[in-house]
Predict the structure of Coenzyme A biosynthesis bifunctional protein CoaBC.
Amino acid sequence: MSLSGKRILLIIGGGIAAYKCLDLIRRLRERGAKVRCVMTKGAQEFVTPLSIGALSADHVFTELFDRQDEHDVGHIRLSREADLVVVAPATADLMAKMANGHADDLASTVLMATNKPVLIAPAMNPAMWNHAATRRNRATLTSDGIHFVGPGRGEMAESGEAGEGRMAEPLEIVAAVGALLDTARKPLAGKTIIVTSGPTHEPIDPVRYIANRSSGKQGHAIAAALAKLGAAVRLISGPVTIADPAGVMVTRVETARQMLAAVEASLPADAGVFVAAVADWRTEGESGQKIKKEPGQGAPALQMVENPDILATIGHHAKRPKVVVGFAAETQNVVENARKKLDKKGADLIVANDVSHDSGINPSGVMGGDRNAVRIVTREGVEDWPELSKDETATRLAEMIAARLG
Ligand SMILES: Cc1cc2nc3c(=O)[nH]c(=O)nc-3n(C[C@H](O)[C@H](O)[C@H](O)COP(=O)(O)O)c2cc1C
């Protein structure tokens, strides 16, 4: 996430978590943000203006009645020359001042004078966080439009104390800052979309299974691209070794039958994008014990049975999403097979890709690789996309789904 050119006014309160601000400033700046800091008197008991100034590479503001600062910048300009005001740690005291409109030091005066969004990261002992006064202040601040990040649960600085009140970690605060400053178009806001990704594993016995080469890269990229356009994404993933995409709800499954159950449990949805390489067959009568290699007995014969067809089940489901997208990995007659799938599976759109070794995509091929060249097959026709990275393919497809959902 880039915060390039964004101006953050960071107000540091007098809590033990003030030390985390040193890292927060670094994290914001390495993403391109300009960070200017105001410290309360209390904050200066925990970290020094010297280290805050060194990390922010700017003057640190501490006094309301400072003739020089007031002449150079002034508390009003300070409050306005930012895209976002962040209060971290937001102490019980600062929250109380904000909720009641106090303006008796630089931090509280700037917070009263600002016309920019304000994000607070509360940090305090659980007893303070749950105190009736703080609860009232929380409600007031929420109804005043103040944004919160955290607090989380965990160990307190005071030994032996634990509970809710720990300040959000710097990277969580950075993510909240990014979300608040993200003014990008969100055509999928309010839409729920199911995405399946990765392979399935079909067990033979407790240690062996049948799998395929799907890495989950394309499905995960699509989930991320849909989330970026504002969709609430439920990603149902088979076993993969890649990281969860940011901002999506992930359910992990192993087998095709588990994947179908997870998809059905996620209905209703506005769209379903079925990218997972679901095994067509599983072994009948999975052995509960590891099959032993016995001398003279030869190899066991595996009897295969068909797995449920997730795309076709959802394509003809009573709760069918408005838009159903299927993926067809083919090694021959790619378009012809994709066309047949449209009706058979009840899909609106098939993303057909040639996963044969002579697909021309090297060095790793489509499955497991980072690039893809797909054909979009709909009832209206066929669209050939050039070879793109899986992220670019995902972005284009997300836009196409957004257009279909209107
Ligand atoms: C060691 C120590 C740790 C403190 N930690 C917190 C804290 O985590 N959260 C909090 O709300 N107050 C904490 N306080 C109390 C605040 O420092 C105190 O309320 C102060 O007036 C807050 O000033 P400010 O809100 O202007 O920064 C702590 C006090 C001490 C002495």
